């Protein structure tokens, strides 16, 4: 009977071990590369089913606007870019325009107490969970019109309840309970994680079918047109 010598066995074991180590290193490098590419390239993998949107259900293109209700630039976007997107793409069924609130200003940029970036996001979520897309899309511009100085905590719970009173058909008692019990805080935190996972560092940030684009109307329009082809 022919047997492998001890030296040959050791050499074979060493070779197999080296190949396995090389394979593991390669897989690790691939994972890191993929993660870095996602962060640098600005790609977002969003749970669209959890987000409020404007548009027709069968629209083929998803546009996500990441915003903070305390953000002055977001208010400018809401007043100038959003109406153009509605008239040219939302109203005719070409896109669904999603809102993803990333509450960061109160805690990271201009720290104030209470954290009214988060409170405003919770209030908007309370409206969405009670009244769906229609109620949310009525409340959103109300919040932006009421926007105060970002250095001040203007979106208090009392102020949010007052603003919610302008949303027709909203059960105000139910809204107040939702806000007072922080019932939507977990959902807001999940949205925050989704924005950060997509590499968002400021607002407004726009994604067209998961790919980040510049937040000017011309750039967004170009990306939408390309996605519609």
UniProtKB/TrEMBL annotation:
Q: Does the keyword Transcription regulation apply?
A: no
Gene3D superfamilies xref list: Glutaredoxin
Keyword Nucleotidyltransferase found: no
InterPro entries with a match to the protein in the record: Thioredoxin-like_fold, Thioredoxin-like_sf
Cite the Thioredoxin-like fold domain residue spans from the record: 53-226
Q: Where does the sequence pass through the membrane?
A: 12-32
**Which keywords fit this entry according to its UniProt record?**
Disulfide bond, Membrane, Oxidoreductase, Redox-active center, Signal, Transmembrane, Transmembrane helix
The entry's family comment says: Belongs to the thioredoxin family. DsbA subfamily.
Report the protein name in the record.
Answer: DsbA family protein
Q: Which organism is it from?
A: Deinococcus antarcticus
């Amino acid at each position: 009977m022919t047997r492998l010598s001890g030296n040959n066995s050791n050499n074979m074991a060493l070779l197999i071990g080296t190949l396995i180590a090389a394979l593991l290193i390669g897989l690790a490098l691939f994972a890191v590369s993929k993660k870095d590419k996602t962060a640098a390239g600005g790609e977002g993998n969003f749970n669209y089913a959890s987000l409020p949107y404007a548009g027709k259900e069968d629209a083929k293109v998803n546009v996500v606007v990441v915003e903070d209700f305390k953000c002055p630039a977001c208010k400018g976007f809401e007043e100038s870019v959003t109406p153009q997107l509605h008239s040219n793409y939302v109203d005719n069924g070409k896109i669904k325009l999603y809102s993803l609130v990333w509450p960061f200003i109160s805690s990271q940029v201009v720290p104030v107490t209470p954290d009214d970036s988060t409170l405003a996001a919770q209030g908007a979520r309370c409206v969405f969970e009670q009244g769906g897309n229609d109620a949310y899309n009525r409340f959103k511009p109300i919040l932006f019109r009421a926007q105060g100085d970002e250095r001040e905590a203007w979106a208090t719970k009392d102020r949010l309840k007052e603003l919610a009173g302008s949303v027709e058909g909203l059960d105000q008692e139910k809204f107040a309970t939702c806000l007072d019990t922080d019932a939507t805080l977990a959902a807001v935190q999940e949205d925050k994680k989704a924005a950060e996972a997509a590499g968002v560092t400021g607002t407004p940030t726009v994604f067209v079918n998961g790919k980040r684009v510049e937040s000017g109307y011309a750039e967004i329009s170009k990306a939408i047109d390309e996605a519609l082809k």
